[in-house]
From TrEMBL:
<dbReference type="InterPro" id="IPR017464">
    <property type="entry name" value="Sugar_tfrase_EpsB_2"/>
</dbReference>
<feature type="transmembrane region" description="Helical">
    <location>
        <begin position="280"/>
        <end position="305"/>
    </location>
</feature>
<feature type="transmembrane region" description="Helical">
    <location>
        <begin position="80"/>
        <end position="102"/>
    </location>
</feature>
<feature type="transmembrane region" description="Helical">
    <location>
        <begin position="47"/>
        <end position="68"/>
    </location>
</feature>
<feature type="domain" description="Bacterial sugar transferase">
    <location>
        <begin position="281"/>
        <end position="463"/>
    </location>
</feature>
<dbReference type="InterPro" id="IPR003362">
    <property type="entry name" value="Bact_transf"/>
</dbReference>
<keyword id="KW-0808">Transferase</keyword>
<keyword id="KW-1133">Transmembrane helix</keyword>
<feature type="transmembrane region" description="Helical">
    <location>
        <begin position="108"/>
        <end position="130"/>
    </location>
</feature>
<dbReference type="GO" id="GO:0016780">
    <property type="term" value="F:phosphotransferase activity, for other substituted phosphate groups"/>
</dbReference>
<keyword id="KW-0812">Transmembrane</keyword>
<dbReference type="Pfam" id="PF02397">
    <property type="entry name" value="Bac_transf"/>
</dbReference>
<dbReference type="GO" id="GO:0016020">
    <property type="term" value="C:membrane"/>
</dbReference>
<keyword id="KW-0472">Membrane</keyword>
<dbReference type="InterPro" id="IPR017475">
    <property type="entry name" value="EPS_sugar_tfrase"/>
</dbReference>
<comment type="similarity">
    <text>Belongs to the bacterial sugar transferase family.</text>
</comment>
<protein>
    <submittedName>
        <fullName>TIGR03013 family PEP-CTERM/XrtA system glycosyltransferase</fullName>
    </submittedName>
</protein>
Amino acid sequence: MNKAVRFGKNTLADKLFLLGETLLLLVSSFAASYLYSLYQPVDQEMAAINAVLFTGCVMLCALSVGLYDQKLREDTGGVLKRVVITLLLSGILLELVIFSIVPSLHLGLSYSLIAAFLSMLTLTSFRMLFHYHDVTKISRRKVLILGSGERASIIERRMRRNVDKRNFEVHGFVFIDGDQLGHIPESKTIHFDYKTDLYEYAVENDIEQLVIACDERRNMLPVEHLFKCKTRGVDVIEILDFIEQETGQIAVNLIYPSWVIYSNGFEMNHRFKTSLDHRLNALLAIVVLCLLWPLMLITALAIYLDDGRRTGTSVFYKQIRIGIDGKPFPILKFRSMRPDAEKNGAKWASVNDDRVTKIGGFIRKYRIDELPQLFNIIMGDMGFVGPRPERPEFVEKLVKEIPYYNQRHNVKPGLTGWAQLKYPYGSTTEDAQEKLKFDLYYIKHRTLLLDLVILIRTVEIVLFGKGR
């Protein structure tokens, strides 16, 4: 299997981290059961069941608030805040859902509080210790970049931070004939006769992966040496696949048609994606609608009192967007802007946009304005997960300016998506191109598991106000 396809692959450090957190949660739960048993008898079998339930719920909620995001950058206070929110969510999940369905499993509220307190102390301490000592070093592979020109500089620019290089360590950039000079600092550029000595150099320096990133490939690479490296256990990978593997995006500016055609991914079971997929999305949308209708009613009332009553404008806003196969459809949202917001024509929304109302700013930040799109999902125009649908005025412009932009219309648009998790809100052509890199990655690797991960991680966007 192509390494780039292995979404969520774990290094040794990742496995140790997950194992450590699992053990700490189990220990915290058993310790809570023991303390609880000092004044209330506890059956050992029940204690074990509660430990498994507690650990599973906490880890699921930790995923939803971004604690398992490999590129999470938080200080001790930020980690503690996310751990506390994780434990609150897991408490709600346990007490209001699981124990309500099977009350016989419930040990008691005191047990849950003790387990949560012990977990808060142990998880925060463990995470700080793990990251302080940078345990990821034990599993970083040594990478040699074959190229030091314009293409290779993409790796240097996009992966400067340590958090971007959790899985690898760049040994250096090899100058290849035909490379454009000046893109990689001389201190990081390696000069040797790669045409005759590449294999020996890779062996002597314990290189584990070679990345083909030269500007000119035709008759420039020592194919025999690359073949020898590959047969002796040194991984050889294209820069496109390397960037996709390490960043969760596809470098649009490096794509060539044959790569798209012959690359793994981009397949779709048509029947599944048209029949079963729509039914699952519609069913889930109906369930969510039944749960969130009070919030939607309060939102509609707030918009009406804010300016709807005064202006006589609807609390809803319909707008034409481009869906699957480039077909337009009317999207439904809560109105978050003034009635005259587009008197001068279509315009990108921006941060601190003065067209946004007071209520609009709040509902956009926490994505509440998107909730009416549940009806679009039920109608089949959208799914829960997919590229966000864009307006036809902007699509016409972006298709001309950004290569492969039209390919995002090969799947249904979604209420949330991979790009929304990985890239902050943007309002320029450059932002659209950056988001396209993540959208294409999603289209290439979409599965039910990836959809589920995106849905769970969307909770983080809502809780921490990472919307617009």
